[in-house]
Amino acid sequence: MSAYEYHYFNVRARGEVGRLALAAANLEFKDLRHTREEWLEIKASGKPPLGQMPFLVTPEGKTLAQSGAIMKYICKKGGLSPTDPWDEAVADQICGGVDDLRLSFIKGHFEKDEAKKEELKKELFETTLPARLANYDALLKGTYFLDNKLTYADITFFDFFNGFMNNGQPTVPDCLSKFPRLAALYEKVLENPGIKAWIDRRPKTDL
């Protein structure tokens, strides 16, 4: 096997950040998208380390699960990780903050009670998201979050605002309009040749 194998469902969701990282790192990979039936067979085989997707299979045949662990491993292989321990901690801080936003989005998106759903959506867009964007704007010191070079912190930021806030469309999402420096960061990540090529060719999905 000469390429990485990336296993997930036919959606972006929690799996897309790994695909974006592989594309940005210019690592050859097979984008394997499974139906629920296929996944049940794969899970029963014991191949996924934690019995969940996404999971990565390296060219050497090693397997790795958890989207964050996969992304960080890929970025270290591809030179997209901070080299300083403090900078790495700051990058992890940014990713953790994005995870908070993702969980808030998912909680509202899948809420069945319509009144509660609107309440959660309002809280996210009027309170949680603007506050977190102000935090990120303060943390952004240059073209990218760290060292003026692309790292997994920028990819994670882009993944959320592209995939969750903008339904996968490459245009800058409206929620970044009041934060021009963050909008410029979004566009800068999109300019990465690997990421741009991936977004141009990836399957169109609802999630």
TrEMBL record:
GO MF terms here are: glutathione transferase activity
**What PROSITE patterns has UniProt attached to this entry?**
GST_CTER, GST_NTER
Q: Which UniProt keywords apply?
A: Transferase
This protein's gene is called GstS1
Q: Where is the signal peptide?
A: none
Which residue ranges does the record assign to the GST N-terminal domain? 2-82
User: Is the keyword Transferase assigned to this protein?
Assistant: yes
- Name any one Pfam family assigned in the record: GST_C_3
Which domain of life, per UniProt?
Answer: Eukaryota
Annotated ranges, domain GST C-terminal? 84-207
CDD domains the UniProt entry points to = GST_C_Sigma_like, GST_N_Sigma_like
List the SUPFAM superfamilies. GST C-terminal domain-like, Thioredoxin-like
Instruction: Keyword check for Iron, yes or no.
Output: no
What Gene3D superfamilies does the record point to? 1.20.1050.10, Glutaredoxin (3.40.30.10)
Give GO terms for biological process.
Answer: glutathione metabolic process
Name of the protein described by the UniProt record: Glutathione S-transferase
